[in-house]
Amino acid sequence: MRRAFLIVGFNNWGKTTLVYDLFGKQRFLVGYGYRLQPDVGRCFTVESHSNDDTGEQRYIDLIEKRVRAAPASAQDLISVLCPSREPGNDCAGEKIR
């Protein structure tokens, strides 16, 4: 990976929806590159799930898997990240009730 671009926001702020809108799709396969728009030359490796969707360790595992499988044409990563560390936040290990 050369660069990582993170879309940061708290729980339910629409981070994942923003990624879907940017790329015009809702599914991103491991080992593939995706363009923001057809006329944008650069491809990106995309992880649309945030740490508050998956939990902290699973998020790290998903990113590592995508980085290892990234094609040569998609060496930049776009992902979403929740900065919250409150005990009730999903990424801190507990589910929000």
List keywords for this structure.
4-stranded mixed β-sheet; alpha/beta; globular; 97 residues
Polypeptide structure, described:
By secondary structure, the chain is an alpha/beta fold. The chain has 3 helices and 4 strands; from the N terminus they run βαββααβ. The mean pLDDT is 85.
User: Looking at the structure, what is the overall shape?
Assistant: globular
**Widest sheet, order of strands:** 1-4-3-2
Largest sheet: 4 strands, mixed
Question: How many helices?
Answer: 3
Elements, N to C (H/E): EHEEHHE
Overall pLDDT level:
85
- By DSSP, the count of extended strands is 4
Radius of gyration: 14 Å
Write the layout of secondary structure elements.
Elements: E1 4-8, H1 15-23, E2 34-35, E3 43-47, H2 51-54, H3 56-69, E4 76-81
Parallel strand pairs: 1-4, 3-4
Antiparallel strand pairs: 2-3
Put the structure in a nutshell.
This protein is of the alpha/beta class and 97 residues long. It contains 3 helices and 4 strands.
